[in-house]
Amino acid sequence: MTEVRPRAAASASLWERDQEIAVLTQAVDTLCADRSSPGGLLVLRGEAGLGKTALLAEARRIAERRGCAVWSARGGQTLRSVPFHVVRQLLQPALVSLLPEEAREYLGDWYGIAGPALGIADPGERHADPQGVCDGLVAAVRRLARREWPLVLLIDDAHWADQESLRWLAAFAERLGDLSVLVVVARRPGEATGAAARHLDAIAAAAHRPVTTLGALTPDATAGLTRATLGTDADAPFCREVWAVTGGNPYDTVELLAKVRDSGLEPVGSRAGELRALNRAARGGGLVARLEQLGVDATRFAWGAAVLGTGIRVDLVARLTVMSHEDAARCAELLRADRILTEPDPAAGQVADGDLEFVHPLIATAVYESIPDALRRAMHGIAAQLLTDSGRGVVAAARHLMEVHPDDDAELVEQLREAAREHLAVGAPEAARRCLERALQEPPGPDVHARVLYELGCATLLTAPARTIGHLRAALTLPGLDADTRVEAVWRLSQAYLHNDQPEEAVRTVAAEAARHGPGPARMRLQAVRCMWEGLHAGEDTSPGRSARLAELAASCTGRDNSERALLILRAFDAMTHGENAETVVELCDRALVDGRLAPGLGWTDPEWGVELLMMLGSAYACADRLDRAESLFAEALRAYTAAGWSGGHLALAHAFLGLAYRRQGRLRDAERVLREALRLAERVGRGLPLYWSATCGLIDTLLARGHVGEAWRVAGQYGFAPPYPSTIVLPDTRSVRGRLLLAVGRTEEGVDELESAGKAAAARGGHNPVLAPWALDLARALAAQDPGRAARLAADARRHAERFGTDTAVGEALRCAAALETGPRAVRLAARAAARLEASPCRYEHAAARVEYGIAARSVPELERGLALARSCGADGLAARARKALEAEGALSRVGV
């Protein structure tokens, strides 16, 4: 068989890589065709030593020959705990070339969100939203990429990248279709676990071609490489043994051949038996033995370099290993000569003068793991101190502090707490969690132990509510929390219970803490929080007299502080859910505002009360027909969260509730648009959460109103819109919407069962608002033929509750249902009254439906034409089709231009 040789300019590690090089070349050519070329993503996967780094170096050469800008980064085994390490490396060429004002201009609104993560802006006082930071980084790279076309991004050892960078890369990969950038990612299989593995899988799934899995060299290629290195006189048995010893691993082959050449071993079959001993010196225990042969000082220097991992400078290693600069320089030269350390290739990216790096990550791993445990921990402690003394800050030192042996060091605890605060400020809660968990191992002193647990609970609230519960419960059992912090801890613990779908525990927790306090602001706040969680609980009312107690608390509230304003909002929401008069609901809501606006400290991004309270305020307005105020509130939430860079659950909820307001207004196209965005955002946070149900339920309800029944059914199947339902109230009511969906697709019996379940659930919690849970109206229509008596009773009860609530929408919808159950002149009269009442309502879709139904009942062409125009303006395609069919039956279709 003919030996396979690479091009002369290629490195030895590129033997038998012509196919991969062709793919890289084609990708670069496509990128450089013009500025409108689509982006591309290539993933190279292979075990250590198979030539991934060599292929990335070849990709750089190909790209630079075509005039591309090339940015590169590399993950590191000891650097995975450093958040945004890889993305900062990657953007370094762009960032160092920009003045601060230029960076602000290029990043625009994202500067304050992504800038701290990139290290070019100071973080704000609040905890940054991780998803918002991720989105900001995606936007930042997209903007920078547009000015650098054609741009190639190279990421090596992605399996060792920090989790925050991988999250960014996965999100960026999904957005490459409209951006002319080529991304090449190299990784080992099986090295990453947990979230990092999921992000790597998402990156691979976004690639524009199958993942390229590198294989070992064939025996022929190994023979060709052997003869190219040692001379053509290397005989066949010797070459076959080289392949057998190395398994065709390119890195092992290159290293083995270098040792053969250095040792003067003759490349003949009779000497092939010596190859295995030489190969053992290339990695693992053999490498350690080889290192020891260079002397104690060289070994210490290599250990110091492995502890640093990056930024390996002779002077810094000298200080770390406590040796003179001259001795350190001599050791560095020995290690370079023995192919353990090398000088980085300046063409591979930005490197500081005098930096060193390990020849291969396999060597770095072997050296690091060879350091005795106690000594390695001590060296990390020294490294942390060196970085702190050099002004690099506690965040740079934190990865070393994490490795120090626990020793009751109060200063170390404070350093880790400070690092955690900085991590949270830039949107890296997982990094903060690791710092605080390490601080607990120290352990903290009795005076700060509870504070560390509290801070850890706060750090994990958004990402792991179950873990938060354990931390905060432990913190509350210990002394050390002042009164205000204790109340805050109870509040956050109750939030965690709610997010973990344990609303009963949330209620019990705040109730128990409230009982510990006398009259005053703290007790009132806790009472308000208890009422809030009780009001959101979708199960049976486990607290008899809750509404009466809440009414009593709110009766004396004037809205003089935020605790009183919170109680007024909670009372309004409770009154709305129970179907009390809507004027009372609106009056309570208005009293909770200050000059018609949210009070300072009660805004959407203020942490004291949380998003739930304001969503209850907006929902009360929406159900009470004050849709202008509901829309204003939810639009303000959207603006506030977008400006603050909160792209996770908060932004998903803002979209979902703004969609609710649009749906109620009859702006069905707008509602569908924002609800689809809500669902997209909710998917990133996680399925099963109340916000996920709100987005899904709202979208299905809107699609049904538009008449897109098939799409509603598809969405329900795709997103799991079926029992079991969450333990918190969801708007719109899940059971009512699912019952209506089942009826719409012809599964009448199941739909009736679902609506009856909705009625039982509403009755159990005292919910008698037909706008909030319109199950009775749909059930009455469904039973009209088979059980007209029960249908009539249901409609009558619904009408009674609607008149008690008193809004035009509630009464008009009840009249629509009553008309649907009648025939003849009475049906026409009721339909006319429904249309007239709904004309005064802000809900245009319901008005359109009433007009169409009145037109059909009265066989009135003008009413049908009016209903058709309203249906078209709403985007209610199904209703418009019904109106057109009725007009056609009346012979008047040509009059409306159809």
UniProtKB/TrEMBL annotation:
It comes from the Bacteria. It holds the Pfam family AAA_16. TPR repeats lie at residues 652-685. PROSITE patterns: TPR (PS50005). Signal peptide: none annotated. Gene3D superfamilies: Tetratricopeptide repeat domain (1.25.40.10). Keywords: ATP-binding, Nucleotide-binding, TPR repeat. InterPro entries: AAA_16, P-loop_NTPase, TPR-like_helical_dom_sf, TPR_rpt. Residues 16-184 form the Orc1-like AAA ATPase domain. SMART domains: TPR. Coiled coil: none annotated. This is AAA family ATPase. The lineage of its organism: Bacteria, Bacillati, Actinomycetota, Actinomycetes, Kitasatosporales.
